[in-house]
Structures are given as C-alpha cells and as structure tokens.
Amino acid sequence: MTDATAPTADSTPPVSARLDDNDPPWPLRPWIMAAICAVSGLVFHLLIDHPYDDPLAHWRGALAAGVAAAAAVFVLGVEPRRWHWALGFALLWGAVMGLITWHSAGYNVGGSPVEWPFWSGLLAVLVATPLFQTRRDFAPDWRFWKLWTMPYQRLHSHAWTDAVIGAASLAFVGIAFLLTVLIGQMFKLIGINLIFDLLNDEWFGWMLAGAAFGGAVGLLRERDRLVSTLQRLVMIVLAVLAPVLAVALVLFLLSLAGTGLTPLWDSGFSTAAVMMGAAAFAVLLANAVIGNGRDDRATNPALRWAAPVLAVAVLPLAVIAFYSMHLRVIQYGWTPERLWGLIAALIALGYGVAGLWAVARGRRDFDDWLRPLQQKLAIGLTLLALFLALPILDFGAISTRDQVARLKSGATPVEKFDWAAMAFDFGPSGRAALTDMAKSVDRTKAGLASWALKAKDRWTLGRDSDEMTPRDAAFGARRIEEKVRVFPAARPLPAELYALFDQRSLCRTDPCIAQWVGDNRVAVISDSGMVSHFAVDAASKKWTDYYEGSDDAAEQKRRELTVDDIEKGSVEVRAVSRRQIFVNGKPVGGDFE
C-alpha cells in the first residue's frame, strides 16, 4: 500500500477573504489603520483641549473636524490600488468639513459648530463615499463626470458594507473601552494604577478610540466577503419588517381619508418629522427587499408585494410632511430650521415621485426601474447636501427678512416676536436687524431689541418669546444695578457682587431684594421666595455663594412673593425662635410651628 503524499503548503493557493479579486490581501492594513486613527485621535484631542471657561478658537475646532473627517473617510475607503485617490478624496472632504465647522462656529453668538450645515456636510460625505469607492473600482481614469454609468450592484453593495463596517467598528470601540476599564480595575486591585490613571486622561481615551476604530475597520475590510454575508443577513432581517410597515402605512393612509388631517395638527407631535421618518424607513425597507439586483431581490410573495407598496407610500407621506411645513410657515414665518425641514420634505417628494413612477412602469418588476433612479438621486443628494452645507445660502438672512416683515406688517405682535432667535439663531443678519430695531421710536420694540442684544445667551432672556410683555422689555433692558433693591439703602453693593448675580442668573427678568445680613454677607430674595446667600470668602477675600442650614428646611419656608412685594414692600430682619427635632444632637426634618 502506497502512502499518499501530503500536499505542500505552496501547492494550494490560499482562499482570499476579499470580495473583489482585484483587491489582494493586505495583512498590515489593521495595524496601519489603527496607527492612523490613533494619531488622528491624539491630534484631535490636542486641538479641542482647552479650559472650559475659555471658548475654543474657531480655527482649532475647524481643524479638529477636518482631521477627524479625513481620517475616517480614508480608513473606510482606501485600497492598495489607487490609494492616492483615497488620500485625495479624504483630504478634500477633511477640508470641506473644516470649512463648514469654521463657518458654523462663528455664525451665531456662542453657537455650536455642530449645526444644520455640519449635519448636511456629514450626509454628503456619507453618500459620497460609496460613490467614490464604486468609481475607483470601475473608472478607467480619474474623471468623475460620468458617475451615473457606474454599476448599481457594486454601489449598493459598497453603501451597505460601509454601513455595516462603520456600525460594527463603533461597537468595537465600546467593547475596547469596557475591556480596558476591566483590565485597569484588575491591576488597581493589586496596587498598579497605571492603566486606570491613563483612562482618566482624555488624550489616552481619544487615542484608544481611534486605534480601536481604525483596527476594526482594517480587520473587517480584509474580510469583506464575510462582511458581505453579514450585510445580506442584515438586509434579510430588515426585509422581514417590510410587510409590517407596508400594512401599517396602508391602514394609516386609509384612516386619514375618514379622519382628515386635523388630528395630525392636534397631536402635539411634529407631523412633518414623523411623516419623513416613516418615509425614510419605507425607502430603507424597500431597498432591503429589492437587494443589489434582480438576482438578489427577495422571492417571498409577501415581501415582493410589500416593496412596491412601500415605494408608493413614500409620496403621500412626503406630501403630508410638505403641507405640514407649509402651514407652519404661514403661521409663524421662516426660520433656519423650517427651511431645512422644507428641503428634507422636497427630498422625500423626489424619492416618492421616483417610487411611484417606477411602480407605474415596472409593476412587480419596479425595482429594475427604481435602481437607476436611486443612483441618480444619490448623486443629486450628495451635491445638494454639499451645496447647502457650504456658506453659499444664508438661511439666517432669509429668515430675518421674513420675520422682520411679519413684525412690521403686524402679522406677529411685538410681544410674540422671537427675539431670542433673532439674537442667537439667525446669525449676523439677525443681530444687525436687532441693532436697527433698537433705534426704533417704538419704545417697546426698541427695549426688547436692546435686551436681546445685551443678552449673553438665549437663557439670559429668561422667558420664551411668546411670554414676553412690554414690561419685560423695559425691565430686561435696564442695568442689573437698577433691578436690585438694596437694604439698607445707604450701603451699596460692590460691583463684584452684581457681576456674581449676573453669573448666577439672578435679577435678570424680575426685580429682587438684596439685604445685608452681616458685615460681609448678603441675602438675595427673588419673587419666587427663594433666598440666595453670598459672602466674602475668608481665604480669597472674594464674594462667593454661601450655604447654611438644610435645603429642605429652606424649601419648606419659601413663600411666593408678588412683584409689588419685591418692588415696594418693606424689608426687615427678625430673630425667630423655632422648634425642631434633634436625634443624637443632629437636626432632623424642618422646624414646626
């Protein structure tokens, strides 16, 4: 009997884990991606690290956003072939996101850079990444002006694979942190605090998050054949939900035929947001059913019938959302949020019209007509989102002109005008309009405009705009020294104490009383009956908050006061005897009469 000769290691080629045979294995990818993201995390920390009482410089926030965006886009989209394309694409989007962040940070006073333009730019880069990957795979050269000729199957596969890899990598970041905390606690038990101390340093946390994310992306990208299987599993699970949503939407739309739209406006929820959320889920589940192509679509009859129903249902949902936005604008005028909402409704209408047209032309084979339409819509959505994110259209200026026109025409009463939005949401145009209105001969209008301009933040105004009265305007525009009654009157308060009142949001919207209760101690009484104590710190010689006694007891003794009490009432300090229960020499509960 002759023994069989075992095959040598070189006789059988290894089976590639890559989905595309044009992408050879890259064993060092996880380590390279982890290193890139770890360094990016450190740079990101160094850029955003600043004292909390000192606002972050706009250029630093912009550069941090650019570094984060460029690193994430590069590790998600890079391949050894045409790697320089991925580098250029990542640097381009890093510059774009940095520009968007820089402009958003300086647009509103005290505003956050993570505003609507930032989210629009993020949407643009998320949609553009699979477009780039598909073009990189099939384009003969770097020319990108024939994006619509790309194969839909590869584009759809890249979009879902990127989503799965991104979500799995973020989950891995959370797991990595939990494991590091566990290891740190283990060593802390035996007196070694190095890892535990590192976790308390922000720079280490950002580096760990970056390394975990980059390493996970590298590992999964090297096994994208397995990821493709996971992606198909996700699509199968989502497809099962398609008939549920399809039946619910049909019943909902049929119910509206009997109830009308009035209950939608009376529900207390944002009708437009709910309708657009339902439309987005309908598009998602319909795509889960139809898959990447004709050979990939679901064969179950219930799923096959649910998909066209979902595609058609998007249009009426988008129409309701659009009509809801229309009514809101008629009632209250334009704001940046409503402009963004209108654009979202128009995008939903575009998908709705495409779905209806595809079903009308293809019926049960509607997906053959829908896929090329969705590819064109994805390209258009990327360009639109990028255009809206860049500082080209000024939604604040559009809103300012509309709101000022409504104020002048009387459509919006002075006391109902949104002065806080003009000061903090509409950008330079809003504050310029407030500056002009502060010079108005109308004292109420001028007072409210001056008050809004002087406010350091929207909460300084103290009330919602629809609750403001002419008295609020006149009072809010006064200096804080004019809002406080001091007792005894012959002993004025130091300027340092007034500044502390302003920091603690005291005496901003209503008058209050300041009573000297000692050589270096002051009690401040508001119209709510709340008493705040301030004293000179013995060590620093500066005024600070002073706490004494039980907060529960103070709450029990609080009495509501009227404005007349604060502005005209007499003030005195009395010695009060009280009875209270003590246990082992310690007071328990409040005093009783």
Low-confidence stretches: 1-7, 9-13, 549-558
Q: Which strand-content bin applies to the residues?
A: 5-15%
Bulk shape: globular
What is the chains' assembly state?
A: single chain
Structural class: alpha+beta
Biggest pleated sheet = 5 strands, mixed
SSE order:
HHHHHHHHHHHHHHHHHHHEHEEEEHHEE
Description:
The protein has about 600 residues and is α+β, with helices and mostly antiparallel strands. The protein has 22 helices and seven strands. Helices cover about 60% and strands about 5% of the residues. Strands 1-2-3-4-5 form a five-stranded mixed sheet, with helices on one face. A two-stranded antiparallel sheet has the order 6-7. The N terminus is likely disordered.
